[in-house]
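FW: tagging you since you asked about this chain on Friday. Here's the raw sequence from the shared folder, copied in full. Didn't touch anything.
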Amino acid sequence: MPGLGRRCRTSNARVTSPMSNVEKSLETQLRNIQTKTGRALEQIYDLIRQSGRARHGEIRDFLKEELSLGFGDANTLANLYLKSGAVGGTSAPEPSLDDAIAQIYAGPKTSLLPIHERVMAAVTAFGPFEAAPKKAYLSLRRKKQFAMVGPATKTRVDIGINLKGVPATSRLVALPPGGMCQYKVGVSSAEEVDAELTGWLRQAYDAAG
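HL: got it, structure written out here
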């Protein structure tokens, strides 16, 4: 989760590798950051090095305070800095849960964080569970996994739910057998994390204990 799809094209024309929309968006974001701060990217990296910050969340918060950047811009810079190996040749420490979530919802997906937080608030009210960050989603477990939460697109969070014997609906979409979850619910706004969705999550939580 989220699902992956592939589209293939065949053509006699010369194959080119145009910049993707994501790359263009990142390039524009970085250009705007450098214009706003009056600093080149390497100068910003030097500033981070001098600060002594090494963890993702520390770097993000430092950039927000030092350069008056918003969460999304600071989060993107923190990701790029750590991936660039600019931490002085040392391996970056394992990110905290908050840092991992910030990376999952980095860049254009930052606006989806309120949905994620609303889901987590609902699940936390059920009782204890383990939250295990993966590359593109958060796995929620008790004795076994009962849900998965992660951005499917820039405008939608998909919530995978492990339930048995529950009829599918237009909202509770049944997934093919053999997957990591039996059902999926797409959520585009925090208001959609309602009593119905919370009820399905509660059933999954109870069954996983």
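FW: Residues 21-37 form the longest helix (17 residues).
HL: agreed, and Residues 37 and 67 are 6 Å apart (CA to CA).
FW: great, closing this out.
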